[in-house]
Amino acid sequence: MVAIIKTGYSIHKVFYYNENKVKENVAKCIGAGNYPIDADKMGLTVKLNRFLKQLELNENVKRNSVHISINFDPSENYSKEKLMAIADTYMEKIGFGEQPYLVYQHNDSGHPHIHLVSINVQRDGKRIDMQNIGKNRSEPARKEIEERFGLIKAQGNKNSTDFTLKPIISQKIKYGRSESKKAITNVLNQVLSSYKYASFPELNAVLKQYNVLADRGNEDSKMFKAKGLMYRILDDDGKPIGVPIKASLFYNKPTLKFLEEKFASNKTNEVSNIRRVKNAIDMAFFKTQISLAELVQVLQKDGINTVFRKNAEGLIYGITYVDHTTKCVFNGSTLGKQYSAKAIQECCTFINPAEQKMTNSVSEKLHEITFETPKSEIVAALFGDDFRNNKYVGSSTIMGQLAEMLTQSEQTANYLPYELRNKKKKRRGQSNNR
What we know:
The protein has 434 residues and is α+β, with helices and mostly antiparallel strands. The chain has 16 helices and eleven strands. The chain has helices at residues 11-23, 44-55, 80-93, 133-149, 180-194, 200-207, 222-225, 256-265, 271-287, 292-301, 332-335, 341-347, 353-368, 375-383, 385-388, 395-407, and strands at residues 2-8, 27-33, 65-71, 101-106, 113-119, 212-215, 230-234, 240-246, 304-310, 316-323, 328-331. The chain has a five-stranded antiparallel sheet, sandwiched between helices. It starts with a strand and ends in a 27-residue tail after the last helix.
């Protein structure tokens, strides 16, 4: 079992996210806590108003919505009654036993999971402290519930590999495999509400993981000037395919205005989330010298995807890190100068086959050089006749200096640091004034 707790500024968005899943027949509201009637007898207005009325007791609490997902191993398929018992126990253990909450069972991913929707304003108007709730309350609750209900443990499972939460969407969109709008909707529903992104590059870094692109068009296009937005499906090479769909045609209206509001609210990233990504990168370089491709693989094992932004010539000019564990997205420059695309490329070792072949060739030729070999022949042997004939600017000076260094005899002066020199011992009775 894995529990993830998210807080937000709008109970409306969290509520309608789950209710829209119900409309799509990929989720079901299976129960409620501290509501006057059963969940299956309530309409949308009754469900939502229960939250809104209690939030009115303390309008100073801005970050008031609580969205929890409880995730199970793919092999676990529990009844509605057991899922509700797990949800009720968990809410009680983390201090939300007296709060109103709704429980939704989702079946839109590769593993069984439920979503719990609640608020952190109590009946007396006081705010529930969410500081360190994961470590201090959720973790102990998770372990106790795993034991009590016989769940597959998130840690220490001896019979199989440890259960780790997979990305929110089981696989990338394949054009032609399913209806485009429905497939994109599924991705948007998960990404837009779950991940913390603060710009279009950061958002697209996540969407591209699932072959989707948010496209505003070129800056000179009518769509861009009119503040329009379309969503596209990408092929496996990252190129748009099929007919783009206007943002306004999706039921949750993921328009430019909507995204700009999300960018603003996601600006503040927790220091711990930033530190996690920075530490993962630092550890990757600490262990050994690695190539750019190897760095991507190392970070991927830690749940972090690395997305490069390239220009028309294929040169990397930007880098974005997508942390699927914390659902946070960071541009390299946000983490610090040393984590930018330029700095990362400089830190990574990269030798392509042509360079390696040249290195081996030079190494072989160096063994053939002796002190009697003329400098011009050394230059030609290492760099070809073009350098010897000075066809390259500065080649005469540069290669001459290199040849000088290669043929320079080794210095064998018997130099010894002053501190290590043995001082002569004076004879007894010997006077300094002799």
